[in-house]
Each structure stands twice: as structure tokens, then as C-alpha cells.
Amino acid sequence: MAKLILSLEGSVIREILLDKERITIGRRPQNDIQIENLAVSGEHACIVTILNDSFLEDLGSTNGTLVNGNSIKKHILQNSDVIEIGKYKMKYVVEVAAAGHGTQDDFERTMVMKSQPGKPAAPRPAAPPASPPATASRPATGPLTTPPTPQPAAAPAAPAAAAPRPAAADTQPLAALQLLTGPNAGKEIELVKNLTTLGKPGLQVAVITRRPQGYFITHVEGASFPVLNGKAIDAQARQLNDHDVIELAGVKMEFFLKR
Amino acid sequence: MTSLSSVLEIVTATHPGMVRSHNEDSIAADAEIGLAVLADGMGGYNAGEVASGIAVELIRTEMKKSLAGRKTEEFDGNEAERLIEDHATKANNAIYQASQSQPQYSGMGTTLVVALWHDNQMSVGHIGDSRLYRLRDGALEQITRDHSLLQEQIDSGMITKEQARHSQNKNLVTRAVGIDPEVETEVHTYAVQPGDVYLLCSDGLSDMVTDEDVQLTLGSLASNLPLAAEQLVQLANDNGGRDNISVILVRVARVYPARAGVLDKVKAWFK
Q1: CB contact B89 to A (< 8 Å)
Q2: Of A31, A47, B2, B157, whose CB has the highest number of CB atoms within 10 Å?
């Protein structure tokens, strides 16, 4: 089940389980999450949770609701999203469900829509249909408590304003490499992508990956392996720590976290 | 059949993901005959595994039989397409029969994507929402089009691709192997270039990892295909790993024209 971690200026105040379909946030006492602060409107925002998805909606508040720094009206919450209301922050955390049971898991399973019983499954129409097949769908899967009604009308209701799913790794602090030797000594390479390759193709290449757990370096190609703090690494990925020194294709560089 | 194992580098990876207890995907690849098969099963208990397993195993063995002793000279896109269709039909029959005769397999089915490389070409057949992508000159292109409610909604202009990423209806396919007595396989043939990298994947990858990240990974790590496959699975898991993740990567090292006969060579001199 998903939860919110409410914090103020870096210190955690409490955790709130999203165990109700609708949870309201605001200054007035009848809210599920009451925040007594003048920057917070009486009825500020609400979170509607349907199965695995939680939708955040600003209820026309005076000072607005931010998600990951952007002002939103409606937003589908993704794991690790940070909601800001006034000076308060709420981190949305999805706990990975215990595998293999429960209706939540079943609901996500792939199912086949049948156009008409007895006919081959949905022969593709020559022209795109104005609406999806309107006949009842039948779940092909076994245990399923809710019939999977296709919701053509509901689908576009997904707020168009929703930001693209942030890769989980986006929550990492920004890091960079500073070249210490070679013709470009002093130059800085910011590690802004999930994957940054280094070195000379055909000679020696390594990759730095940005993951939720941190930054990792892995050997990609070439006979010699990258040297990390004076020791050659093997084929395994190695996590990088602040101020680690990497030597690759004859160039030394320092990895550091930017604040 | 001339062996393609010196032309094609193939790497496979499959992972149950972070949420599911078992893996209902099945994959097989054979560089010798230039074949890659991937299936994402569905059905209660372990029926999903059974369905995808039947499809992949049957297509692999049947394709091997069909191609044994064949020469690439007599092999063209039409025939490759026919073979893919025939074997997909056989898989459909086998799964449908099993689900009809054994109650625990009732209603099981699977998606399918099959690719066959031959004479500087590749034929691909698919049913459902498992996909084939191609990376050429650094650009990733989705070659297959899902048979899914979501794709139909996109095609009809009801929703945009961006909205589709957040849709609740990701899991509804409009076509699957083994659900009905008959199934239609969508088959196409494409020209292949040296340096192409092909990706076959289940929706456990395409739902969790953006096309941009797939392109970045394949583009950066094409020189180390096993690492690229591992990285794709890791990306899907880092983003939540909500479904089983399977990938098959195929890199084309050089051209592989069908060997020309003596007559063709003589003709070529006079051109």
C-alpha cells in the first residue's frame, strides 16, 4: 500500500497510509491530513486512490500544490514524488506488494478482450474504430474479483497535465566527473543521464549508470578494465563514492556529488 | 541452411521483476537458424507459464525442423512469413487444445513475437503487446504495433501517446495465442543493415522503461550486448519492475545475402 511521509524542513513528522479512497489535506480540522499553517488553504488538496494508482488534485488552493517543484492541478502520483504544500513536504512512497497474491496483483495482469464470443479475438478493423469494441470483455485470467470493464471514457480523464514518469533515479543528487589529466584536464562532465559512457570506442569504454541506490561504474569494452582509486575493477558494476578517482583510457578523473 | 551464427550475435535475459513471484515469460533464440521467439503468458496459477512455454518451445523445434537441410538460395521473405504464420497457428492449436481439455489451463493464452533473419532481411510476426524494436544509426524505432485496447485508442485519436503512458488499460490485449480456435498473426518483412540492433521484449520492459532510455542504453552499450541486456532489465526493476521482464537482443555483424548460384554469377559478369 502507498503512503505519504510528511516532513517539515527535513524532519519527518509522520507517515500517512493511503488506506482510504479519498484523503483530504487542508488547514481545517475535518481534513484527513490537517496542517495548521496559514499558507495552507482550508481545503487544499485531495488524493484519490484506486487500486495501485493515487491521483493528487489541488482543490483550488490559494498558494497551490507542487509536485517535484512543479505546480499541478491534477497529477498521477509516481513512487518518490515529493508533494509540497506551503513549507510542508510529503513524499509519496509505494511499498512493493508481497508478490503473487491479492487482487491488486491480479488486476494488473494482461488480459484478452474478446469482441464477440465464439469469434476469433478482435480481427483488426481496416479503419481505426471510432470507439473501442463495445461488447463485453471476458477476463482470460483465472482469479479475478472485479470484472475488467474497459473504460474508454475514463482513460482520457487521466490528467493531461501529468508529468512524464520520472525515472526513479531522478531523485539522485546530481553528480559530475572532473577530468584531472589529459588534454581536457579541468573539464567537468555532469552525469545528467541515466547512462553516461566514457573512454574511447574500440580501445576502452566504461559506463556510469545512475540508479536509485546511487552511481555505478561498469566496464563495457576493451582489454583493460577501469582503475578505481588505484585498483582495477572486474566485470562487476562498482558503486561510486564522493571523490573516487577513476582512471580510464589513460585519463584520470574524479567523481563527486554536486549539492 | 547456411548458419547465421557468425552473422548474428544474440543475447537473452529474463527476470521475474520486483513484484511477481514467478515468471510467465518464455524466450528462445537460435543464432544458427537466425530465430528469436518471445512470449508473455497469461492465465491463472501457472497456466501463463505453460502457455508461453508451449508457444516458444513449439515454434523453436518446428522452425528448426522446417529449416533443416534448406539452402538460403531458395528462401525468401514470402516463405519466411508463411513459416512464421504456420508455426504460430500450430502453437495456437496446441495451447487451445490444452486449455479445452485440462480445466486448470482453462482460458490460458500468450502474446507472441517471432523474428526470423534470412537473406539480408528479417521477417517478424506478432500477436498481442510483445514488441520488436530496431536501433539503426542511433535511432530506436518500434517495428511492431501492439494488438491492444490502448493502441486502438491511440490510433482512433481518443488519447495521446503521453496520456497512454498513464492509462489504466495497459493490460488489455485484443489478440492472443491460444484463446480461440483461430488466430491471425501479423507478419511483415524488412531489409536488414549491418550494425542494426534488434530488441524483442515483453511489456514488462516497454511499460517500465521509456523509449529514450532504451535508445540510450542500446546506443551506448551495443559493443557489449550482454551488459546492454542486463542494463535494460535493471532499468525496468529500478523503475518498479511491476511485471516480468524479458529481452532478446540481436546484433547484425555483417551482410548475409543468400549465396548466389553459378548462373547468377555468370549473369552478373555480363551486367
Answers
A1: no
A2: A47
